[in-house]
Amino acid sequence: MELFSEEYFMTKALDEAKKAFELGEVPVGAIVVCNEYIVAKAHNSTEQLHDVTAHAEIIAITAAANYLQSKYLKQCTLYVTLEPCIMCAGALKWAQIGKIVYGAVDEKNGFMTVGKSILHPQTKLSYGVLENDCSKLLTSFFKSKRFSSLI
How far apart are CA 36 and CA 77, in angstroms? Predict the structure, then answer.
């Protein structure tokens, strides 16, 4: 795996997703990269924080904005293991994120159900990066939840 490739950074986002899995959260991880430097890491925390808006992307946006002392993330790339939802895509639009890279597609709740026009017009998009790894983690999580509800 090439250093600083999309796969390299998605692996870092997957590390965050695995943390969420261990905490009983839906395993979605996100990182924000600026000039090949990770400026923010986050994972879903909706259960721990009792907050439906505590998605990995939202937490990562806030952390990156605080670190960079700017509400705009034009020079940054968000790597996230699952296609962002409409709420997160709206936040990414307002942050004017430079690029979004996601792994697994979310056919039910992903922002692409309404189309790319929800993003800032200058935001670039890449998807399907380590899609199988990202999907397997999510599938494993939901299978374990279904199994534990049968016991």
Answer: 9
